[in-house]
Amino acid sequence: MSTTDLTAATFETTVQDNDIVLVDFWASWCGPCRMFAPVFERAAAAHPDIVFAKVDTEAERDLAAAAQITSIPTLMAFKDGQLVFRQAGALPAAGLEQLIAAVRALDLTEAASAS
């Protein structure tokens, strides 16, 4: 599966209507963003059950502001509609795979009862 472009109009429904959503906030002029893009694309192809989404921070300035994006690339992971991970900076392929495994393994009912 390829990546999905998100807009302010599609962001919330995409996050709410899918089990796991990874969102890459990027811009075309950002060198680290361009380096991370093929890593993100390969992971999308390897994990078709996960939604891999991209937000162009130049085109979606209001969405980037609402998400409090201050540095790009920023990667967010959502599970069952909840933000479970947020980090600025490009991840190497192995780091992205570790994140995917951790999000898959995360039991939100267990996490909620522990808090």
Automatic annotation (TrEMBL):
Annotated Thioredoxin domain residues: 1-105
Record bears the keyword Zinc-finger: no
Alphabetic keyword roster: Disulfide bond, Electron transport, Redox-active center, Transport
One of the Pfam families matching this protein, by short name: Thioredoxin
Taxonomy, superkingdom: Bacteria
Family from the record: Belongs to the thioredoxin family.
Protein name per the record: Thioredoxin
Native source species: Nocardioides daeguensis
Organism classification: Bacteria, Bacillati, Actinomycetota, Actinomycetes, Propionibacteriales
Gene name of the encoded protein: trxA_1
